[in-house]
User: Fold these one by one.
Assistant:
Number 1:
Amino acid sequence: MLPRLDLRVLLAVFAGGALGTLARAGLEEAFAHDPASWPWATFAVNVAGAALLALAITRLPSRHRSAHVRAFAGPGLCGGLTTFSTFQLELVRMLDADRVGLALGYAAASVAAGLAAAALATRLASARRATPDVPARERA
């Protein structure tokens, strides 16, 4: 038997997904490229999405009081922002344009940059969580 769906969580995923998809589509259109060049917009959204997802997972643990925030940020916003299908299509187009080196570099750089961004975001979020909040007047 399937678990009961919380309509509010579903709406949060939908809203985040719509926002992420609109942001990605706007960047893809603003930074259009030909198949024989580096697809900077897709590269940027995928790396940023990896960092945002790691940050959301690290800063919004499952015990967070609002499942809606996690649903909006994770599968919603990050799911809509990032795009594995476009990444794959760009690789195929690079190969069709006989840009094998570019395709290999793009694939390797995308995976490496995504992992690095996720690791950095996780480290920063974990360090922030380990440091108690000190009021601004006490920091000076």
Note: The chain has a mean pLDDT of 88.
Number 2:
Amino acid sequence: MDEYSRELSKLFECLMEVLSRDLGLESENSLNESVGGEGKELQLRINYYPPCPQPDLVVGVAAHSDPNAITILLPDQIPGLQIRKDGAWIDVQFVPGALVVNIGDQFEILSNGKYSSMSTGAWCTKTSQGCHGLCFAVPRVIW
């Protein structure tokens, strides 16, 4: 798990460098610093969706936008992950070995609206179980 966390942290920093360049910021490290820099924490979560005999009556993860800057998601091959685009829910297609990167509310604010946070949700299926791994980078809170 330590190696996986280190690699996710590197990926997060790489994404923030690319996005900093795209926004024309003076430093490639600007966005990474704005979300905690070296002091940021990675939070990992795994969502498990068991088969459900009546999936139309259950919500796996209700529609929401992520409050953090960026979410890195490792989906599985079971359908259920969706994004909302132009008022319609669209299934996220599984691509073996690919990660899904969601822009969150914090990054929408940091980019002054150039990038938009999106609504996502995950729905249960009748016959298949699913599992998604998620990684959030958040500033470290010191009390």
Note: The longest helix spans residues 2-22.
